[in-house]
Write a structure and sequence with these properties.
elongated; single chain; 125 residues; mainly alpha; 0% strand; 6 helices
């Protein structure tokens, strides 16, 4: 995905690293890396195009981020990505009482944010 402002290699690495921290979804990356990337699981060792291709193909499977941990990981990856960070900050300031720490929100709130904003930062489409 291209998490709005999130097409840089740094942003894509952040997305894959967030994925690597999330249970079942981690297996998607590991399997992909083992099958197509010579077993190299460190996203920093791949170019942006490779990471973008992986995210575009697989984020629908994990991008709805189904556990709170998954969703927190997605939002934290977003917070590390330039312009896209402003999406979360603005959302948190407007709708969440200015609380920008995703750990302090429930999964439903995080899922709503991701569902509403992922098209802007490329999650899922």
């Amino acid at each position: 995905p291209a998490w709005g402002g999130g097409n840089t290699k740094e942003d894509l690495v952040g997305q894959v690293k967030a994925l690597q921290r999330s249970g079942e979804a981690k297996e998607l990356w590991n399997s992909y890396a083992d099958t197509y990337l010579g077993g190299v699981r460190d996203p920093n060792r791949h170019d942006a195009a490779t990471l973008s291709d992986f995210c575009a193909q697989h984020q629908p499977a994990w991008g709805g981020g189904n556990t709170k941990e998954d969703l927190v990981g997605q939002v934290k990856a977003l917070q590390r990505s330039g312009e896209a960070k402003e999406l979360w900050n603005s959302y948190a300031d407007t709708y969440l009482g200015g609380v920008r720490d995703p750990n302090r929100h429930d999964a439903a709130t995080l899922s709503d944010f991701c569902a509403q904003h992922q098209p802007a930062w490329g999650g899922g489409n």
